[in-house]
Amino acid sequence: MATRSETDDAMMLAALVAARRGLGHTAPNPAVGCVIVHRGKIVAVGHHARAGRAHAEAVALEKAGRRARGSTVYVTLEPCCYHGRTPPCTDALLMTEPARVVIGCKDPNPRVAGRGIRALRAAGIRVDVGVLENQCADIIRGFGQWVRHGRPWVELKLAATMDGRIAARGGASKWISSTPSRRLVQTLRARVDAVLVGIGTVLADDPRLTCRARGARQPLRVVLDGELRTPPSARVLRGGASTLLVCAPGARTARRRALEAVGAEILEVGRSDRGAWNTLLSELGRRGVHELMIEGGALVAASALRARVVNGLTFFYNPRVLGGDAVPMIGPLGIDQPRNALRFETRSWSLVGEDLVWHGEIV
User: Fold this and answer.
1) 84 with 93: CB under 8 angstroms?
2) How do residues 108-125 score in pLDDT, each as one tens digit?
3) What are phi and psi of 120, to 5 degrees?
4) How do the domains of the chain map onto residue ranges?
5) Nearest to 221 by CA among 265, 188, 191
6) How confident is the model at residue 83 (pLDDT cuts 50, 70, 90)?
């Protein structure tokens, strides 16, 4: 455990703010932030901008220059200790001789996994680990899932009324959530590498699934479309972002050719929930996708939950009621006893506009 102080918390919080600038841009690397403090003042701030560019520590050390010697370095993730596209960050730190390095969380990458910490301590540098650990670990949740299991972190995001309905009985769903919540969704999209919906959402709403947050990289758009019913004119196939249509084996060749002609990629998966999801997530992992956000609809949400592939959940609840004849937020799960219900652990909740936003993780 780290030796904690209010200063350590404040400086690590500044490093976290820097790290968040890289979210959605750094895969297959993690988003990392670094702050260097010399004689009680911040002299440099750096973050990892994208794969292939300098890591956060290297950016901050270059900015700090001679003031890095004898300083305290705050970094959200354990410095790397191996040669990749860039030199090891431990080497850069050893060359500049800081007095102390404060680390938010250890690197889950087996190639590091404490080796960076040991290298710094072996050189006589004081190293403290675990300052704002949970917040730092959350920043790299997708990287951790990817580096350990070769597949992305899966976040299920749904917007519903207080009685858990995502559309009126006729299917109309615009708009369940408030304008501030819809702006927040753009921020969530800016963090992830891919967004996913089912064919029902495409046919009902014709969404673009692009990210309108300023400076954001466009996520890969994924549509679960077993029979390839997506119209070639659908907006999800336009807008400058890539689209992957996931279909069942034997989907009609003519439809496949028409969709490929307008730029769609096609992936065939099995028909069982678990098998199909495992194939899809493995393919996304192969593409370097760290975080996938499922955005709907009810049947897709139920399929992912039945397959036990969901890691986190973000639910937007609007203070309205649509009633029992409206569309439920999650389709059938086949659970016959309350004791068998899927259980989640609350991580946070907040008010955004008039909506209650709840975030949890699978127990």
Assistant:
1) no
2) 988 888 889 999 999 999
3) -70, -45
4) 6-140, 150-362
5) 265
6) low
Name 96's Cβ contacts closer than 8 Å, sequence gap at least 6: 61, 64, 68, 69
Instruction: Kindly report, residue by residue over 277-322, the tens digit of the pLDDT.
Output: 999 999 999 999 999 999 988 999 999 999 999 999 999 999 999 9
Residue 138 to residue 314: CA distance in whole angstroms:
14
Strand pairing report for 291-296 and 194-198: parallel
Helix, strand, coil share (%) of the chain residues, nearest 5:
35, 25, 40
- Class for domain 150-362, per CATH? alpha beta
pLDDT 10s digits, 202-242: 998 899 999 988 888 899 999 999 999 999 999 999 988 89
pLDDT at 17 over 60: yes
CATH class of 6-140: alpha beta
**What is the per-residue DSSP string for 197-238?**
EEHHHHHHH-------STTPPPPEEEEE-TT----TT-GGG-
Give the full edge-to-edge strand order of the sheet including 220-224. 265-268, 243-247, 220-224, 194-198, 291-296, 153-161, 312-318, 355-362, 344-352
Say if residue 344's pLDDT is above 80. yes
To 10 degrees, the CA torsion angle through 35, 40, 42, 47? 0
CA distance 154 to 161: 23
Q: Which residues are catalytic?
A: 57
What SS3 class is residue 51? coil
| CA separation for the pair 33, 22 (Å, rounded) | 8
Retrieve residue 124's tokens. 């006589």
Strands (DSSP E) found in the chain: 33-38, 41-47, 72-77, 100-105, 126-129, 153-161, 165-167, 194-198, 220-224, 243-247, 265-268, 291-296, 312-318, 327-328, 344-352, 355-362
Radius of gyration of the chain (CA): 22
Backbone angles phi, psi at 124, to 5 degrees: 90, 10
Dihedral sign computed on CA atoms, order 339, 298, 188, 143 = positive
Please report, to the nearest 10 degrees, the dihedral formed by the alpha carbons of residues 224, 225, 231, 237 taken in order. 30
Cα–Cα dist 58/77, whole Å: 13
